[in-house]
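Final report, closing paragraph on structural work. Over the funding period we assembled a curated collection of sequence-structure pairs, and we close with a single example.
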Amino acid sequence: MSKGMPPLLGVRGLTKRFGGLTAVNKVDFALWPGEILGLIGPNGSGKSTLVKLLMGIEQPTEGSILFDGAEIAGLSTHLVARKGIGIVFQHSRPLERQTVIETILLGLLPDSLFRLSISAEHRARARAIAEKVGLGAVLDRRPSTLSFADLRRLELAKALARNPKILLIDEPFAGLTASECAEFSSLFREQRSQGKAILLVDHNVRTVAALVDRVIALCLGERIAEGKPVDVMRDEAVRRVYLGGAIEAAPRNGTGAAGAAPLLELRGVGVRYGKALAVDQADLAVGENEFVSLVGINGAGKTSLFNAITGFVPHSGEILWRGQPVKGLSAVRIARLGISHCPETRELFGDMSVRENLDLGGQRQAKAESDDRLAWMFELFPILKSRQKQNASTLSGGEQQMLAIARALMTDPQLLILDEPTLGLAPIILEQLSKALDALRQTGKVGVLLGEQNVTFALPHADRIHVMDRGRLTWQGSPDRFVHEAGANYLI
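Its predicted structure, as stored:
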């Protein structure tokens, strides 16, 4: 990489609006040959939209994209590909009837209906690409027989078949083991050594930081930091986006029953989506009335673990509720055991009123008990009382989050699972949610398993902290220990 030459890719003022939503806002950056540039940011930061703009999948509202000195903004995808930009998508979509070598050969064919013959040279080139990415032993196999990592290798091989000057790679490490991440990192370094430029998008901040030459951090469609990986990871704005602010311990009075048998216990739990590994050998326990925080960046596997607990996805290993396995039980049966799940997506009934959503949560209780719990919800979240007749879809994001938590509590759970409750909320709403969790904690009526990227929100409410990274639980301890042992290196 030589910064003395013009950049291979120059982006200026790139903007994309979807109606009133600005997904990418006046983004500038450059990419040189022989450079790996990392693009990081939480969900909704604009990373995927930016990649689609570069590839011509989406058309920009404003701005310029110069490739090798020529304007390509607004070109269709096939024309962008012809110019020399290749893309490796996050989700594999192979042609199931074609073998590995046949799939790679399709990418080698000339862009002409009159030259669609396969020569010995094409076959030799396809074999060389397959060998380079680690598919040499599976040339004659079809995609359905491949491992998840080999499917990812096939996506890379398809892109390399076009011999691009720039590779756009979206979430290459999602679902891979640590050893597989290392193998793919070596492949990307080899491409860099051959002069190719790579734009790498991934949630796995540590893997990206160890691989790339520079990092750009996005938040809400805007570039908030750029530079060397270590400097960007330590940037105050970046840490605020990922962590919520400074990592500090807070005084707490534990309400959990010390020494008692766990309410919920996980032993070697694993979750797969097809061939993709999302959770790997997770061990975790939550005691009676205990608050446990599970922290990790987006894509770490928190949601998949919660969905396994509540019966939404199948799992390996054991999940025990009061010592009894829940495997094979439906999500409804698990909920009736006393586990209430408030998902990241909230899942409110938008066309129903606030009161109707709450009444649904308490429908299995006697009226007197339901009325008592409703009164308690209005104490925890006073704004909901004044919004009772308002449709859920018309509430603000923070009010919808409060309603989702209140509806989950209306079921009278013994354990409340909260998945990313702070996602996208303003600081004043975070303060209100924090006060509500404090009040809930003081009642001693329910335990909480809280999944959060926002560490500064998770710490004050926790008796114990677990850290999740790439599907594995990598650390556990008290909030005080987290501050001194894990907090400083949480992103790097």
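The two ends are 24 Å apart (CA to CA). Residues 254-258 have pLDDT under 50 and may be disordered. We thank the funder for supporting this effort.
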